[in-house]
Design a protein that fits this description.
Elements (H helix, E strand, L loop, with lengths): L10 H17 L3 H13 L4 H21 L5 H20 L11 E6 L7 H12 L3 E4 L6 H11 L3 E5 L6 H13 L4 E4 L8 H5 L4 E3 L2 H10 L11 H4 L7 H7 L1 H15 L8 H24 L2 H17 L7 H11 L4 H15 L11
Parallel strand pairs: 1-2, 1-3, 3-4, 4-5
Helix pairs in contact: 1-2, 1-3, 2-4, 3-4, 3-5, 4-5, 5-9, 6-7, 11-13, 12-13, 12-15, 13-14, 13-16, 14-16, 15-16
Length: about 375
C-alpha cells in the first residue's frame, strides 16, 4: 500500500505564501491571525530572519503601496503597521530567535523627527539574531540623547534609520555628532536615496539599502573610526549662501503668503470646504519643507521626485493636480532673490508638465 504526499513547496515559495497569508490577516486588521501565522511558521522551522525580512517587511511594503494608491486610509495604515510591529515582537521572543551574544555592541536609532520605527526595529532583531548586543532606542531620538547614550555604552557603531527625506538635515547633525566622539555611523532607509547618495553626501561612514545588507556590512568588519574634527559645513559648502537657513527660518510665513495668494491663482480653490483648505495648507507646508531640504542638499532631483510623487498621490485621491504649478510659481515669486530656490522650483514645474508626472513612483 503506497501513501502519496503532496510535495513541499520550495523555501522561497513558502515564504511568499506566508507573506500572502499574513497580508490577508493584516488587511483585515486581524492581529491574532497574523501573529498565529508567524508563530506557527517559526514552530515549523522557518528561519526567523527570513520571517522578519521576507514576510513581515514585505507585508509592510505592501501597506505603503496600498496607502499610496488610496486603497487604505491613514488610520488603516497605522493599524496595519501596529500589527506588523507586534508580529516583530512575537518573533523576537520566540525560542527560535534566542541567540547568544558573540559580537560587539550596536546602537540602533531613528533620526530625530522620524516616527517610522519599524525598519529600525527589523534591523535590531536581525542584528540580535546575528549575535550582536543591540541597544534599540526607537523612533524620534534627539541627537543630544543619542550622544549621551553613546558616552555610557562604548558602542562599536550607530545604525541610524530615516524614511523621510526632510529629516536629512537633522540626520546630518546626528551623524556629525556621533563621529565627533569617535563612533562610526551606518545609515539606511528611504531618506538616504535608493543608491545611498545622500548617505555619502552627508559623510556617513557606511550605507545599506536594507536590514540584511546592513547586518552583512557590520559582520564584514568594523567600520573605520571617523576623524573627530569633521564639521557639517565640510560636507556642504554651498550652505554658505544662506539660502537654506533663510528659507527654513521663514517657512511658516512663506506658506501663509502663498496660501493666501493661491485662491486668486487657482480659482477652483474658492469652492473648497474647510477640510480641503486645511489639506491644501498642509500640502504647501510639505512642499516648502522639501524645498528647504533640497536647498540643504543642493539637489534638484529630490524636489522633482517629491513634487511628481505628490501629483501621483493627489491624482489617486481625485484631487486636481492643477493646483501644484500655480503654487510653485507663487513660491518662486516670493523667493525671487534666492537663485537656487528658484531653479529648484522651476525644475519642479517642468517635471509636472512631463507626460508621466501623475504616474510617478514612490521611491526616493
Amino acid at each position: 500500500m503506497s501513501t502519496n504526499t503532496a510535495p513541499r513547496l520550495p523555501h522561497d515559495a513558502l515564504l511568499r505564501q506566508l507573506a500572502d497569508e499574513v497580508w490577508d490577516a493584516v488587511a483585515a486588521s486581524d492581529e491574532y491571525a497574523a501573529t498565529e501565522l508567524i508563530l506557527r511558521a517559526l514552530d515549523e522551522g522557518a528561519d526567523p530572519e527570513s520571517v522578519l525580512l521576507d514576510v513581515i517587511a514585505t507585508v509592510q511594503g505592501k501597506v505603503g503601496e496600498e496607502w499610496a494608491a488610496n486603497r487604505m486610509t491613514v488610520a488603516q495604515e497605522h493599524a496595519a503597521t501596529a500589527i506588523n510591529e507586534r508580529a516583530v515582537g512575537a518573533v523576537s521572543v520566540h525560542p527560535a530567535a534566542r541567540t547568544a551574544v558573540t559580537r560587539g555592541r550596536i546602537t540602533v536609532a531613528c533620526v530625530d523627527g522620524e516616527w517610522h520605527a519599524l525598519p529600525a526595529r527589523l534591523l535590531t532583531e536581525v542584528l540580535k539574531l546575528r549575535g550582536w548586543r543591540v541597544d534599540y532606542l526607537g523612533a524620534q531620538v534627539p541627537s543630544p540623547h543619542l550622544i549621551a547614550h553613546l558616552h555610557t555604552t562604548n558602542a562599536d557603531a550607530v545604525a541610524l534609520s530615516g524614511s523621510i527625506a526632510t529629516r536629512l538635515p537633522t540626520a546630518h547633525a546626528a551623524i556629525t555628532a556621533c563621529q565627533a566622539i569617535g563612533v562610526p555611523v551606518l545609515v539606511g532607509g528611504a531618506a538616504f536615496g535608493p543608491t545611498g547618495q545622500y548617505a555619502k553626501l552627508l559623510g556617513a561612514d557606511a550605507w545599506a539599502p536594507d536590514a540584511r545588507s546592513a547586518a552583512d556590512r557590520l559582520a564584514h568588519g568594523p567600520l573605520s573610526r571617523p576623524l573627530p574634527d569633521h564639521q557639517q559645513f565640510d560636507d556642504l559648502p554651498h550652505l554658505g549662501d544662506q539660502e537654506y537657513t533663510l528659507v527654513a527660518r521663514n517657512s511658516a510665513s512663506l506658506v501663509r503668503t502663498v496660501f493666501n495668494a493661491l485662491e486668486a491663482a487657482f480659482p477652483a480653490m474658492a469652492a473648497y470646504d474647510d477640510l480641503q483648505r486645511e489639506r491644501t495648507a498642509e500640502d504647501l507646508a510639505h512642499i516648502v519643507e522639501f524645498l528647504t531640504t533640497a536647498l540643504y542638499l543642493d539637489d534638484e532631483a529630490l524636489f522633482t521626485w517629491f513634487i511628481t510623487w505628490t501629483a501621483h498621490i493627489l491624482d489617486a485621491r481625485g484631487v486636481p493636480v492643477q493646483s501644484l504649478p500655480p503654487a510653485l510659481n507663487l513660491l518662486a515669486g516670493e523667493l525671487k532673490d534666492f537663485p537656487r530656490a528658484v531653479r529648484i522650483l522651476r525644475r519642479g514645474t517642468e517635471a509636472l508638465a512631463a507626460p508621466h508626472a501623475t504616474a510617478a513612483g514612490t521611491t526616493a
